[in-house]
Amino acid sequence: MSRETVMDKETLAAFADGELSPEEAARVVMHLADHPQDQAYVDDLMAANAALVRAFAGPVNEPVPARFQQLLTPEAAPQPGATVVPFRARLRRRAPVLAGLGGALAAAFVGALVLMQPDAADPTLTAGPVAPGSALHGVLAGQPSGQPVAYGAGELTVLASMPAESGFCREVELLDRAARRMQVALACHDGAGWSVDVAMSETLSPGAEGQDFLPASGAEGVLLDRWLERRGAGLALTAEEEAAAIAEGWAR
């Protein structure tokens, strides 16, 4: 069976943004293995995403100013006797062409604030640099494999640690049994800090009697194997080797 020779840029961009299902992501991974030009395109997109995350890393650690919080809440009804200046209405009438652009910019700004807040009520695993001092950074830096810790509404567990060409990588799993959702991610340390290379979500289905929930498709293994190959990852560290790497701050 011949592999797909053409893949549209929208699909590649969705893959870089982590918006594809595990099955779709696995198909893209197989395509990229034989299409270096598309691989370079995806690498550029991911580098741009990482640069955006770094640019917002400082501001999102600060409280959202009250004037911006007001943009996220419905406007208060005017009180009797108050003087109301219909600024927004006049602006829309005088500049209808800018209304769409302004809305898009506002949506993008608000989206950045919501998506990049590090202390979200229900944190998830997303691709990009891991902020120092965050809960995820603490787990990656010092948690031994196989010991789950509370993370939002679920449990975060390091599944394995592997040596890589430029440092170390750790495979982590975020399990939310109540929501029947599982996330698997690969995070790597290259001397400059921790960064999540790839993260994907799976819907969990009930297992057989006496078993826990199981992934609905299991396609995440294909994608993780691909990224481990790119990182030049070796065999999983033993418990003793992992403990030594943690003690040395993951230095090579």
TrEMBL record:
> Does the UniProt entry include the keyword Ribonucleoprotein?
no
**Protein name as it appears in the record:** Putative zinc-finger domain-containing protein
Q: Which Pfam families match?
A: zf-HC2
InterPro entries listed in its UniProt record: Anti_sigma_zinc_sf, Znf_put
Q: Which domain of life is it from?
A: Bacteria
Question: What residue ranges are annotated as transmembrane?
Answer: 97-116
Question: Which residues belong to any copy of the Putative zinc-finger domain?
Answer: 12-33
Q: Keywords in UniProt for this one?
A: Membrane, Transmembrane, Transmembrane helix
